[in-house]
Design a protein that fits this description.
Keywords: Membrane, Transmembrane, Transmembrane helix. One of its GO terms (molecular function) is oxidoreductase activity, acting on the CH-OH group of donors, NAD or NADP as acceptor. InterPro entries: NAD(P)-bd_dom_sf. This protein is mainly α. It has 3 helices and 2 strands. The model has no long low-confidence stretch (mean pLDDT about 85). Bound molecules: nicotinamide-adenine-dinucleotide. The site of nicotinamide-adenine-dinucleotide has 11 residues, from helix 3.
């Protein structure tokens, strides 16, 4: 009796369809499945590349942060304080969180 581990060791992916496919068809199924996987990967990759190019040319609509509340951890200095200043300029209510009470 073939277990899933044995099927996997023979080069077959364990999956819901593997057991339903006759033994004589399993090689073909594996090849077809691999081709489909590669095609799916290529289509998704090309889709993401096209999407990235489109967004870099057309741009992405920016979210309006006016009146939003922003909690900035480590906002007493460094990048946190810069982020807090940027968010404040965009109209956010800033809550600063830092272990350094004095800040910089
Ligand atoms: N500066 C860079 O180029 C850079 C690049 C990549 C990632 N980072 C990461 O971004 C973060 C901030 O970098 P930075 O350069 O602004 O560092 P920083 O040391 O200048 O500022 C960190 C701030 O966080 C505060 N802080 C530390 N522990 C805290 C805690 N437990 N709770 C609340 N506040 C705390 C500190 O008091 C300080 O004000 C770090 O995690 C750093 O590793 C920085």
């Amino acid at each position: 009796m073939a277990t899933e581990a044995q099927e996997y060791m023979n080069g077959l992916r364990p999956g819901p369809l593997t057991r339903e496919i006759p033994e004589c068809m399993r090689d073909k199924y594996t090849i077809i499945q691999t081709v489909l996987d590669v095609l799916t990967f290529l289509m998704l990759a090309i889709g993401h590349v096209i999407q990235g190019i489109y967004k870099s040319i057309v741009g992405v609509p920016k979210k309006d942060l006016q009146g939003s509340i922003a909690l900035v951890t480590g906002g007493g200095g460094g990048l946190g304080s810069l982020i807090a200043l940027r968010l404040a300029r965009l109209g956010c209510v800033i809550v600063l969180w830092d272990i350094n009470e004095r800040g910089q």
